[in-house]
Amino acid sequence: MGAKLLWRSRTSGTRKTVVVQPLAERNVKWHASMSDVRVGRSKIKGAGSGLFASVALRAWTKLPQPYRGKKLTKKQWLRARDHSYMMGLVHKTYYAIDARECLLDNPLRYVNGARTAAQRKKLNVGRYQLGSDVYYVTTKSVPADTELLVDYGESYWDGIAFSKALGELRARRDAIRADMCGASASKLADLELELEDLRDEELELRS
């Protein structure tokens, strides 16, 4: 994932143009402390925990800590079973950050992504990359007790879909292997063909 792009309108005479402004460290005007945010139950159905503003946050406030976790190469990312807490990177060495097991002092892990049109109307956080680290910054004033929401980008949801599809393939593979125990010779041959098809599907999925 690259820098989140903010779109601002600029009017010149009667014509209106759109200027693309990358969100970066230069946009930061304020810095939040760990006590300025808290983890609570998300207002998004099925999302579990979310991150909330404990106090009112001004626009362009950098949230505490970068997105912390294990930095993965693309090969490691492809081998991972769970992409729920993956943050993609644009970097020559690392492909993503996996925050799944980094629970402490990692508030950005709990910021949920807006996916539906209704959720996107409530976006109040942007993200940007600095080196191999990702930071979040508020893009508008955020009242106290408001949930913080960010746009993860399509690559995040692609990763979730990849993880789900890979899990389904592995479940089918395990079921076939279980059926192979005690199967007749003719049945065993059919099951081996099914396993071969699954291997091809997995190779295609990973390509």
TrEMBL record:
Domain called SET: residue spans: 35-153
UniProt xrefs under Pfam families: PRDM2_PR
Superkingdom of origin organism: Eukaryota
Name recorded for this polypeptide: SET domain-containing protein
Organism: Noctiluca scintillans (Sea sparkle)
Lineage of the organism: Eukaryota, Sar, Alveolata, Dinophyceae, Noctilucales
